[in-house]
Amino acid sequence: MIRRLVLVTAIAGWLLAPLPAGAQAHADPVQAALDWLRAQQQPDGGFSNGFVPGSDPGATADAVLAIVAAGGDAREWKINGATPLDALQTALASGAIGGAGALAKVALAAEAARLDVRSFGGTDLTARILEDYAAETGLFGSGPFDSALAIQALRAAGVELPQGAVDGLLATRLADGTFAFNGDLTPGTGDSNTTAAVVLALIAAGEQQATAPSLDYFRAVQNNDGGWTYQKPSAFGEATDANSTALVMQALLASGEDLSGWNDPASALRALQQPSGAFAFNADAPAENLLATVQAIPALAMVSDGIASGDASTPWTAIGVGAAVVALLAILAAVVLRRRSA
């Protein structure tokens, strides 16, 4: 499934008319990205994932997180009287959102908007997430990525984790410190996106000491320009991409890392911003990419707000965005040329 998404995303990127190559030096990169994002809002208040028409719950939840991370209020983003939060509630009521990972993404968005996750759209999101927990494996949903999002969402809502949830997640860690999207333990299957989401989850669960192997992995696979790719080695290319770089940045910041000691990944991320304010997935596919943009905004907002030295006090830093941060669609689709949804 992931490899199919990689191929589809790659083809989509190649077919889109590219914007002028090279970085766009916006005076305020975050505001420029927000201005572009606002123009992408759908008639129902939500956001498309960029690959199929109409609003997508995962992309909409990511957009809410991006808006809040940049200091905005998603309840004020109205089109035809509808906000992104209205679109999420409509999707919930229709049954379009299911599974721990997707529900956790919506819960994180609701929590960031300071709404009650126990009665969001008439749904107790925390109860629904807990229903998708398997005590025998210690995992939520379909694997480590879903589990990471679920743990972040439950802890953000002040809900105690089921016994074994942290141990179950750690049991899927590979020898190189990575985690694979679906829990595959074959060497080389781990990826930067799932690993970043797990780091955020472990921090949210009060297990920061368990993140050290993953931070070592981030250091080992960082590209020369300061950014990250989905996987190394990878048959789909290893160029720095916005989604992976933004998600790893958030994990590092939440870990208390000083990004100045990490070869300035923010510069690598800003280099992918287009003249319109949107972000491209990577330099090989210089087209406006909504999923890349909603992942990039929180990471750059944290840096511009002076959190680059590792102050993880900002709510969405500890909960994890995404990117992003980024689950499900944002992450699966972020695989462009190699890979990443909700």
Characterise this structure:
This protein has 342 residues and is mostly helical. The protein has a single domain (2-335), classed as Glycosyltransferase (Alpha/alpha barrel), CATH 1.50.10. Helix content is 46%, strand content 1%. It has a two-stranded antiparallel sheet with strand order 1-2. A hairpin with a 4-residue loop joins strand 1 (133-134) and strand 2. It starts with a helix and ends in a 10-residue tail after the last helix. The model is unreliable at 1-22 and 306-342 (pLDDT under 50).
Keywords:
mainly alpha; two-stranded antiparallel sheet; 1% strand; 15 helices; disordered N terminus; 2 strands; Glycosyltransferase; 342 residues
Query: What is the gyration radius calculated from CA atoms?
Result: 18 Å
Strand order of the largest sheet: 1-2
Strand content: under 5%
The poorly predicted ranges are: 1-22, 306-342
Annotated CATH topology: Glycosyltransferase
Mean pLDDT: 85
Number of helices: 15
Looking at the chains present, what oligomeric state does this protein adopt? single chain
- Architecture per CATH nomenclature, i.e. the level-2 architecture: Alpha/alpha barrel
**N-to-C span:** 14 Å
- Biggest sheet details: 2 strands, antiparallel
